[in-house]
Amino acid sequence: MTSCVQCIEYLMVFIMIAAAVFAVEWRDLLAAVVGMAAVSLVASILFFFLQAPDVAMTEAAIGAAMSAAVFIFAIKRTQRYETEEEEKPGWWVRW
After folding, report:
1. Per the domain annotation, does 93 fall within a domain?
2. Which of 5, 59, 71, 72 could link 44 by a cystine bridge, Cβ 3.0 to 4.6 Å?
3. Structural domain contains residue 51
4. 95 lies in some domain
5. 32: closest CA among 19, 18, 43, 15?
6. Computed over its alpha carbons, how large is the radius of gyration of the chain?
7. Nearest to 31 by CA among 85, 65, 75, 66
8. Per-residue model confidence (pLDDT) at position 88
9. Res 30: pLDDT
10. Is the residue at 30 inside a domain?
């Protein structure tokens, strides 16, 4: 039984890392916000697995819902896509 739960936890960590990488690499800002919200949602599920339901509910409400809503509101008031003419960041930022 614990082996199955541990496999699910490892799968959730892998999904969280993949969503974080996608959130950083996507050029569409709205898609990046969805990736950020996915990271927060998976973190809240992991908190629930760790027997911390109050932290899980707070992370889901504030981390996934409120932060995503604020970022989406900000994106709607600015440009949605980054342009290719912008200066590329240094190698320490994008490797």
Report:
1. no
2. 59
3. yes
4. no
5. 19
6. 16
7. 75
8. 60
9. 87
10. yes
Q: How many domains does the chain have?
A: 1
Q: Is residue 21 within 8 Å of residue 61, measured between CB atoms?
A: no
Residues written for the chain: 95
For tokens 């908190």, the residue is: 47
The tokens describing 40, both together, are: 């927060």
Using CB atoms within 10 A of its CB, is residue 33 exposed (0-12), middle (13-18) or buried (19+)?
buried
Residue type, 35: G
The verdict on pTM exceeding 0.85 is: no
Residue spans of alpha helices (H) in 1-95: 2-25, 29-49, 53-58, 67-76
Contact 85, 43 (CB under 8 A): no
With a CB cutoff of 8 Å and minimum separation 6, the contacts of 17 are none
Q: Domain limits at 62?
A: 2-77
Instruction: Confirm if 28 and 13 have CB atoms less than 8 A apart.
Output: no
